[in-house]
């Protein structure tokens, strides 16, 4: 048996041993957290974030979903047959689930129910074409958050409809997400794998599937060291077990950095936007795991407590204007990470007391944030919530 395969199954066993009963609601936010935000909604940083969310088109109380029987997405969503509609509906469902808990207005909960039911009744052909696995992951990351909140707080959602959504996640999302770890996808840029792992974790929680949850945790522990570099890794970054790279291949896979510096991600020299996709999903899994009683933030196998803060500080410093050139391909960051790092900062700086000055400055410059794709409303949900008694 190859060493990488043996290690993967060892991590899977260790994660299974650490897990207990699945907690609900337990995807990214819990009700204690949302109750605290609601009680402090007229204080910053939540006040501005809440007002922005209320005014967003995703929060329209007359929102109408646009489900597709098959979602076909090529590279960069070309062709775009249902891709934009699915993500918009998923973002709307999560937005309105949050507003249901923060405002108490049942119209938001009804809209979440309507959106989820529409997709559960319509999507039968899964996610096809080259971006299918990533599209499925983005949709599942968000739909599951919305479903988890409303399932455990809204009596107006009948059990047969909940069961249909459970089957939707199991049949139309999970198999498509898993494709990110097979065939030609195994060595794609690793934001694919980060989002796939978050989707797997979230589906496992909602569907109460411990085996799927253990698999997601094991994959996360393998992904983090292969996505975020530390000097202790040696002269080159680590590989994920599903994507071995030779020394000659690794620089190209990391888009030719000037040098490997601590906190650099596999996609930093591609552009910061895609690095944000990967980092956000990695942090989101750690946060959801925390709600499940598993501390991945301090996970020793992946050295997450070193890697994640280093990555946030490096990318924040660069965008704050205080970091030397990172990449051979460009001088000055391409795009940005605006919209994320709130959740990671909330844990490491506010809960753990770690000094993260660059990340703090970066967040202060950009609050309140909306986000992109699967990272959404982080100021509203996690800004300063690490101070909850």
TrEMBL record:
<protein>
    <submittedName>
        <fullName>Alginate lyase family protein</fullName>
    </submittedName>
</protein>
<feature type="domain" description="Alginate lyase">
    <location>
        <begin position="87"/>
        <end position="319"/>
    </location>
</feature>
<keyword id="KW-0456">Lyase</keyword>
<dbReference type="InterPro" id="IPR008397">
    <property type="entry name" value="Alginate_lyase_dom"/>
</dbReference>
<feature type="signal peptide">
    <location>
        <begin position="1"/>
        <end position="20"/>
    </location>
</feature>
<dbReference type="Pfam" id="PF05426">
    <property type="entry name" value="Alginate_lyase"/>
</dbReference>
<dbReference type="InterPro" id="IPR008929">
    <property type="entry name" value="Chondroitin_lyas"/>
</dbReference>
<keyword id="KW-0732">Signal</keyword>
<dbReference type="GO" id="GO:0016829">
    <property type="term" value="F:lyase activity"/>
</dbReference>
